[in-house]
């Protein structure tokens, strides 16, 4: 069997968007991935489903899933078994990453390897706290230093005395435990006690925290703020520039924990927009969409599409699943040439585009009821035949209104939504810990399933569990379902789109921050 190859890949500092393109391409064809505590698990979404994923651990404080020798052995064994192995390491593999040691072992065993650099956490911590790591006004040199060594160890490789005054910016990795000693040491060696210092935890992620002080007081401030590893220390005059360029933590939703309850497939549009604004999203899908095994009504309709005048879509899922059946029947979009197409809303109309189709009709308000009324108002219903591919249990208002106005409606179930339960516990724990700022609901079924997952005895218990968490909904129907469950929506955009929902969320938190500012 030919020997495999090992790729040592830098995962970047935490934000999945800071992985290199080369790193992503390698993950996409990995057969084995050995990953660290500091590598964002979201990067594993790029890995093929059948790949072997091995958590190699290494969390400061002794929680090691594997020893370094164990990891080396693992890489060698999998490569010898002919596998394409990605060794995914936080930041850059060669900056305090023991990448050198792993590669030496591979070389000694005659195993082919490559290394891919990554954005090191020093660079991310500086950039995401608005600190230019070098700056012509302040400094022309930087040192990356490990703070893991005991500063008083006799055989230390570090010459703190020279570092203290010989280098402009000092970036200390793994320095939280020894912070008081290191700061003392720098002051004793002649660095001014008032030298500004930043400590940054989980840099580049929505959980980023930063504390700013001086060599003299940062240890106390870090202790008070409860900052734990992984965090970096940046000491030097450059830290002064932060006030002017601290962009990351000033984004409108920074530090807000927002729960997204949509299906995993649909969540990304909302999650991407919220994260872009700095939110920390907790994806808790409360529904899953499943193909319907029995689509007999639709299949029969597909055989005689010429009998219909209109094709109505009430959700992007309806679109996707309709075309799945159309393909299965050996047909494509050309089969719809004689039909007019109506979509309930912008997202549904957009779902038609990949199939080369444009909706002929879109109501102003994006509800089934509004669609029916708009079609009726235009005189499009009397004597017309409608094909309505939709969810197994869908609202009845649309078909009933059309029928009442003299239309003929063929309801063709193509998919069903089922409760997704796997994230119930995670959501409960987050709510109990008071970590949730906002829950978002985009349909009645997300409301019902979510409340079922939380399994509270009564409304009072539910309200207590929700605590300070606000609720945002899309659509008056969803708001009504929430009301029926004894809760009220705090946020409901006028227009039923994800973009408007996100805007309304931003406005709500901005108002709240403004009010807090006034109270101070
Ligand atoms: N190879 C990594 C460093 C590994 S050493 C890199 O290039 O970034 C582990 C230390 O890195 C942690 O103790 C912490 O000091 C720092 N670190 C890693 N990721 C970090 C992050 N997102 N925020 C702050 N510090 C981080």
Task: Give me the secondary-structure topology.
Layout: E1 5-10, H1 21-28, E2 32-36, E3 52-57, H2 68-80, E4 84-89, H3 99-108, E5 112-116, H4 121-127, E6 142-146, H5 160-166, E7 169-173, H6 179-188, E8 196-201, E9 209-214, H7 218-225, E10 231-235, H8 242-245, E11 257-260, H9 264-276, E12 280-283, E13 287-291, H10 296-303, E14 310-313, H11 316-328, E15 340-343, H12 346-352, H13 368-377, E16 385-391, H14 397-404, E17 408-419, H15 424-432, E18 438-441, H16 444-454, H17 459-466, E19 470-473, H18 476-484, H19 498-519
Parallel strand pairs: 1-4, 1-5, 2-3, 2-4, 6-7, 11-12, 11-18, 14-15, 14-16, 16-17, 18-19
Antiparallel strand pairs: 7-10, 8-9, 8-10, 13-17
The chain binds S-adenosyl-L-homocysteine (SAH).
Residues 13-14, 38, 60, 89-92, 95-97, 120-121, 125, 173-174, 200-204, 229-232 line the site of S-adenosyl-L-homocysteine.
């Amino acid at each position: 069997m030919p020997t495999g190859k090992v790729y040592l890949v830098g995962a970047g500092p935490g934000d999945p968007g800071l992985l290199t393109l080369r790193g992503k391409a390698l993950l996409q064809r990995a057969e084995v991935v050995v990953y660290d505590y500091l590598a964002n698990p979201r990067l594993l979404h790029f890995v093929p489903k059948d790949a072997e994923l091995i958590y190699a651990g290494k969390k400061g404080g002794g929680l090691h899933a594997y020893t370094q020798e164990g990891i080396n052995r693992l890489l060698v064994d999998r490569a010898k078994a002919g596998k394409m192995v990605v060794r995914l390491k936080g930041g850059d593999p060669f900056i305090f990453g023991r990448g050198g040691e792993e590669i030496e072992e591979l070389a000694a065993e005659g195993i082919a390897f490559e290394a891919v650099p990554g954005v090191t956490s020093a660079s991310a911590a500086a950039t995401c706290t608005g600190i230019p790591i070098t700056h012509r006004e302040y400094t022309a040199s930087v040192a990356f230093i490990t703070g893991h060594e005991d500063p008083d160890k006799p055989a230390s490789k570090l010459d703190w005395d020279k570092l203290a005054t010989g280098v402009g910016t000092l970036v200390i990795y793994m320095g939280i435990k020894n912070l008081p000693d290191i700061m003392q040491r720098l002051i004793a060696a002649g660095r001014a006690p008032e030298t500004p210092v930043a400590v940054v935890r989980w840099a580049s992620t929505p959980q980023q925290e930063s504390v700013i002080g001086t060599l003299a007081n940062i240890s106390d401030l870090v202790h008070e703020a409860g900052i734990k590893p992984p965090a970096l220390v940046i000491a030097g005059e450059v830290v002064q520039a932060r006030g002017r360029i601290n962009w990351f933590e000033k984004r409108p939703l920074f530090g807000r924990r927002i729960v997204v309850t949509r299906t995993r497939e649909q969540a990304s549009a909302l999650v991407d927009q919220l994260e872009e604004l700095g939110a920390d999203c907790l994806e808790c899908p409360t529904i899953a969409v499943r193909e319907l095994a029995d689509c007999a009504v639709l299949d029969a309709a597909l055989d005689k599409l010429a009998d219909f005048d209109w094709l109505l879509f009430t959700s992007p899922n309806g679109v996707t699943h309709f075309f799945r059946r159309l393909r299965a029947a050996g047909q494509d979009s050309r089969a719809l040439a004689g039909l007019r197409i109506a979509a309930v809303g912008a997202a549904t109309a957009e779902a038609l585009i990949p199939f080369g189709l444009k909706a002929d009709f879109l109501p102003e308000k994006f509800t089934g009821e509004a669609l029916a009324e708009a079609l009726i108002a235009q005189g499009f219903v009397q004597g017309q035949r409608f094909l309505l591919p939709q969810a197994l249990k869908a609202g009845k208002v649309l078909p009933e209104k059309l029928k009442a106005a003299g239309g003929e409606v063929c309801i063709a179930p193509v998919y069903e939504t089922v409760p997704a339960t796997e994230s119930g516990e995670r959501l409960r724990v987050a709510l109990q810990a008071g970590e949730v700022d906002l829950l978002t609901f985009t349909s009645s079924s997300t409301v019902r399933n979510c409340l079922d997952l939380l399994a509270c005895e009564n409304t009072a218990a539910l309200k207590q569990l929700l605590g300070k968490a606000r609720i945002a909904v899309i659509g008056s129907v969803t708001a009504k379902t929430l009301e029926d469950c004894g809760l009220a929506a705090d946020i409901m955009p006028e227009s039923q789109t994800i973009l408007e929902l996100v805007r309304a969320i931003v406005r709500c938190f901005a108002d709240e921050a403004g009010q807090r500012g006034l109270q101070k």
